[in-house]
Amino acid sequence: MHKLVCAALLPVLLILWWSKPAISSASGGPRYRSIFSFGDSFADTGNNPAVFGWYSVFDPVTRPPYGTSFFGRPTGRNGDGRLIIDFIAENLGLPYVPPTLAHNGSFRRGANFAVGAATALDAGFFHERDIPGGASKFPLNTSLGVQLEWFESMKPTLCRTARECKKFFSRSLFLVGEFGVNDYHFSFQRKTVQEVRSFVPHVIATISIAIERLIKHGARSLVVPGVIPSGCSPPILTKFTNAPPAAYNSETGCLTAHNELGLHHNTLLQAELDRLQAKHRNVRIMYADFFGPIMEMVESPHKFEDVLMVCCGGPGRYGLNSTVPCGDAAATTCPYPSSRLYWDGVHLTEAANRHVADVWLGEINSFTGVSRKQGTKGPCRLGRHKI
Ligand SMILES: *[C@@H]1O[C@H](CO)[C@@H](O)[C@H](O)[C@H]1NC(C)=O
Ligand SMILES: *[C@@H]1O[C@H](CO)[C@@H](O)[C@H](O)[C@H]1NC(C)=O
Ligand SMILES: *[C@@H]1O[C@H](CO)[C@@H](O)[C@H](O)[C@H]1NC(C)=O
């Protein structure tokens, strides 16, 4: 099966190898002049307080200890410090990507439309199915399609003629995601993993449509992350805390079925990116592996202590307790966030984000066929992981 995964990936890799980079740094100048980002809390640099405010949803990230490891104050990021996108911006020599709903100024160097809790699919898809059910207001109206509308409304302030816009966006890096984690995590409240599996093709199709829409606007460089191993995610582990022993991988302690769902999503996503790459030869579509780097950290117990325990939260087996969220006065924070993988639940610590960013930057910064070929280790390495 692992061989199959690698074989299936081969066309993607060959296409990546053959496709010419959209932008060359041969001149030594900056490769990208701006970053445009879409996504959820893994990428949100400060939009969620605005959106959660509109919907009167409690938002703990506006309180300490969010931002304690870097920035020194809550910034609206779901973490103790920098996110993956922040490390990417730093590496590319660009400003931190301003959140569009919270920044009063220019977006010519980048704009971040990502919002915590955002889904790929429109909110109606879930509300029609009573997901997550009860009195929940989630998912809010912040899907990938809505974020694209925000982008299209902003476009006239960035560039004027079609020609000028194409040129402007050809020099931008587009981060499309991660999307899918919230689609699945909300759905687990009401649906079995098998039922949720049937949503995957819809999620992939929605991401694909968004990519083509961005290419139409002139995007030439797109990074499209896959999903995390949800079966290792503390909120999922907490929700299914009474799962039978056979449901867990005995070495990692992760829930096998939830991780398999993530691998399924990532396999379909890569096949779709392969198709899009073949169709748009002058565009560079990069798959960013989110699953592999997290599994790597889960599997290296020497790297992080209590690897499935969150750093900030309330009493409970995984350090998570729905009545005492991180940001609550009664919550506790571990003394060294950088020694932990998970920060407050699904979100990673800055230390873990840095590790993931390093992997993604390896792909973003690889321009020659040789270095791109090294990337083959990434996706194929996936097959080795004990999910
Ligand atoms: C945004 O900035 C402009 C000029 O600096 C200022 O006049 C305006 O009041 C600001 N708007 C908000 C909502 O802060
Ligand atoms: C969702 O947001 C979009 C963009 O802001 C808006 O056009 C649309 O009417 C909203 N839909 C709902 C159901 O609120
Ligand atoms: C969650 O926290 C509350 C309040 O501290 C506590 O009573 C409860 O036992 C905790 N739940 C678990 C599962 O530990």
TrEMBL record:
GO MF annotation list: hydrolase activity, acting on ester bonds
Record lineage: Eukaryota, Viridiplantae, Streptophyta, Embryophyta, Tracheophyta
The name this protein goes by in its record: GDSL esterase/lipase
InterPro entries found in the cross-reference section: GDSL (IPR001087), SGNH_hydro_sf (IPR036514), SGNH_plant_lipase-like (IPR035669)
Signal sequence bounds: 1-24
Keyword set, alphabetical order: Glycoprotein, Hydrolase, Signal
Top-rank lineage group of the source organism: Eukaryota
Pfam family, one: Lipase_GDSL
Family: Belongs to the 'GDSL' lipolytic enzyme family.
